[in-house]
Amino acid sequence: MQLTVSPAHQKLRDRVLRATGFDLLPSDDVAAAFLAGQSAGDPVAERFVAQTYHGEMGPERARELLDEALRVGVDHVPDAPASMRDLFAEFETIPDWVDPELIEAGAAVWRRWGYSLGAVGNAGTMDTYTEGSLAVPLSLSGGYAGKSALHRYLETTRWWLEVCRPGAVLTPGSRAREVSLKVRVMHVSIRARVAEHPEWDAAAHGLPISQSEMMLTLLGGSVGPAFGLYSLGFLTSAAEMRAVLHFNRYLGHLVGCRVDEMYPQTVADGIRLLYYFDATRKHDSGALGPELVEGFVPSFAPGPESRGLNRARANLHLRLQAGYTRLFMLPWNRKRYRLPSGIPGVAVLVGRAPLIAAVEVARRISPAVDRWWQRGSMNRWRRWHAWHLGQGEERFDASKALRR
């Protein structure tokens, strides 16, 4: 397996370095760690899943056992195998580097971003579907393919909503921690199934849902939106960017990402890794990229049974999501796909940016405005999530079979 920086990216890097002294590419050590991370997984959680969900115990009993351990504590579950005890020991250990104040400051940034965090994250994620290593697992698992795309996004949104509640990720027994562990187990289960599938090319892609790819999602929740949303009025300061980077580092610990090796220590390091990913793209997803991208945004469209206000509301979110893709997918990648027009959504997003910027300035002056801004953003996000979810339920299902 090899990663090669494209000539165009190398040329841009050289020009920027000469003009500013800033190197867009990471150090050789970080680049080597990123390459090694493409073939690295989550051994502790993998042992648990292999022994339980994919072993003699079976998925139903394994799910019951996990739920019980989350509810009463693994020490109070006599049937808990050693692999489960090891998983909980790692999961419940708070690393020495954790700063609770920075964790809370980072969670507050997510609360202010609200719905926009998910939308810009979607656009950035879809931009990565040029890569087979990312597209194949998603297509095989069916999570973001076809009609299931929106429901999978609602599962992800539930995790976002839970982990950014005040104090949630550091509170034992919280819903945020419960969902995080279930997400970790689900990822491991999918990784094992995809790795054995004939469509997966280990020589070209390493390991499905690898350490490097999980780390990129953490940057997609910190450095990426911090810069992207600035243009839409969300005035995130340098200190807040560092806080949300620290917050995402701890989220990575919870979901099984090794955040002690190549995880960026500074915002500049985060930019370098994002640039390195873009510079080393293989553009090898073939037909799977369009399948995923072209299925996601249209999943927000109103259904045939939708009428009146509900129909108008669905159409608004469809246009907003299309607007975010127009703004935050790289133009040369976006043009590969057939997507709804993003122009109406862009008009709304750009038009409201001065109002958001005004509130952002005011919240720096008044703590009361800051609290109001966080509360309002979260309430709007929760209402949208509840409206779309309806009578459904997020399952974070680690037992689901691949769709082909």
From TrEMBL:
Gene Ontology molecular functions: oxidoreductase activity
InterPro entries documented for this protein: Lcp-like (IPR037473), MPAB/Lcp_cat_dom (IPR018713)
Residue spans crossing the bilayer: none
Domain ER-bound oxygenase mpaB/mpaB'/Rubber oxygenase catalytic as annotated: residue spans: 109-341
Protein name, UniProt field: DUF2236 domain-containing protein
